[in-house]
Amino acid sequence: MAVDLRMFQRNEQVPATMSSADVQHQRFSPYADNGGSIAAIAGEDYAIIAGDTRLSAGFNIYTRKQTKLFQLTPHTVFGSTGCWCDVLTFVKMMEAKLRMYSYEHNKTMTTEAISQLVSVMLYHKRFFPYYITNVVCGLDENGKGVIYSYDPVGHRDSVICSGTGSASTLIQPLLDNQAARKNIADPEEAKKKLSKEEAINLIRDAFNSATERSIQCGDSISMSIVTKKGIESLEFALRKD
């Protein structure tokens, strides 16, 4: 018996009575954008990292008290935002690797080594990347503040300041001008170094400004200040609407 192979072919044409706008495709997206922003500044003897505590999706707020900062060692703090399930997975895997390193070498991993570890872990997932933005903040072996920022597949950049996350376009220009001293008209003013107190106030101002323009940024700021004495944690209120 002859078989008409055309009966097994899919009809990809849209019926004349149905517009292309009426066609529904059932597709699964593994990613979600849960918002959040990170700001960090490195100084001569300090490093400061801060993040807002709002966890949201679109117009829905899941919680107002979720910190985006994770203390990895007595001299290193990790900040991450984006798809929150990816953040938790990434941090859990990184903490496991840090414990293994501590058991095998009987010492704590340095900030430089942690920054390289983050880069390798991101690159390892380059074909199905983590949907997160990351900042490593801490002190180097000489006690100087360092900040490392990353692209989605692990490219690492050592910077003076960094603003990432949903409000990065609002925070980064201010940090570039006031912390990195870029695009300042007065040459003498451009040579000025920020003190720790000035850096704290600058980050607060940056977040206060960002919350006026971004619905995914708000509620409060969780801040970690890394110095030779250890890590100090502070919290400041932001607008909650």
From TrEMBL:
Coiled coil: none annotated. CDD domains: proteasome_beta_type_1 (cd03757). Transmembrane segments: none annotated. It holds the Pfam family Proteasome. GO terms for biological process: proteolysis involved in protein catabolic process. It is found in: Nucleus. InterPro entries: Ntn_hydrolases_N, Proteasome_sua/b, Proteasome_suB-type. GO terms for cellular component: cytoplasm; nucleus; proteasome core complex. Keywords: Cytoplasm, Nucleus, Proteasome. SUPFAM superfamilies: N-terminal nucleophile aminohydrolases (Ntn hydrolases) (SSF56235). The 26S proteasome consists of a 20S proteasome core and two 19S regulatory subunits. The 20S proteasome core is composed of 28 subunits that are arranged in four stacked rings, resulting in a barrel-shaped structure. The two end rings are each formed by seven alpha subunits, and the two central rings are each formed by seven beta subunits. The catalytic chamber with the active sites is on the inside of the barrel. This is Proteasome subunit beta type-1-like protein. It comes from Leptotrombidium deliense. The lineage of its organism: Eukaryota, Metazoa, Ecdysozoa, Arthropoda, Chelicerata.
